[in-house]
Amino acid sequence: MLIYKGIIYFFFLNSRGMRVVIIGGGAAGMSAASRIRRLKRDFEIVVFERTGMVSHAPCGIPYYLEGVI
Ligand SMILES: Cc1cc2nc3c(=O)[nH]c(=O)nc-3n(C[C@H](O)[C@H](O)[C@H](O)COP(=O)(O)OP(=O)(O)OC[C@H]3O[C@@H](n4cnc5c(N)ncnc54)[C@H](O)[C@@H]3O)c2cc1C
């Protein structure tokens, strides 16, 4: 297990190679998944997200609450 920049990664060896499990599909988690995919095309990448949304942008919440968007 590795914790880097607030993201928890689990690395497993499966029969085909490396499997990376990322907890959290926010900006950091999905950025990590994209980066790993670019660098290691053969890695299996699994992202667990507890909500129904991935790559969501909390920065927009104030605009939503204000009725701007
Ligand atoms: C109101 C508001 C305004 C902001 N405005 C700006 C701005 O203008 N500019 C800026 O740069 N930043 C802004 N930010 C900060 C920015 O949104 C965060 O820095 C960024 O979202 C952090 O991304 P993250 O992936 O680290 O964490 P998060 O976006 O919090 O993602 C973490 C994800 O992990 C999931 N998760 C947590 N625990 C588990 C679990 N046990 N199992 C599965 N999934 C789990 C969560 O559901 C979440 O989707 C703002 C934040 C807020 C709240």
Structural description of this entry:
It is a single chain. This protein has two helices and four strands, in the order E-E-E-H-E-H. It has helices at residues 27-39, 61-66, and strands at 2-4, 7-14, 17-23, 44-48. Strands 1-2-3-4 form a four-stranded mixed beta sheet, covered by helices on one side. The site of flavin-adenine dinucleotide (FAD) has 16 residues, from helix 1 and helix 2.
Question: Could you give a quick summary of the protein structure above?
Answer:
With 69 residues, the protein is of the alpha+beta class. It contains 2 helices and 4 strands, in the order E-E-E-H-E-H.
Q: How are the elements arranged and paired?
A:
Elements lengths: L1 E3 L2 E8 L2 E7 L3 H13 L4 E5 L12 H6 L3
Parallel strand pairs: 3-4
Antiparallel strand pairs: 1-2, 2-3
Can you list the strand order of the major beta sheet? 1-2-3-4
- Molecular shape: elongated
What class would the helix/strand composition place it in?
A: alpha+beta
Radius of gyration: 15 Å
Q: What would the keywords be for this entry?
A:
69 residues; alpha+beta; 4-stranded mixed beta sheet; 2 helices; 4 strands; 28% helix; elongated; binds flavin-adenine dinucleotide
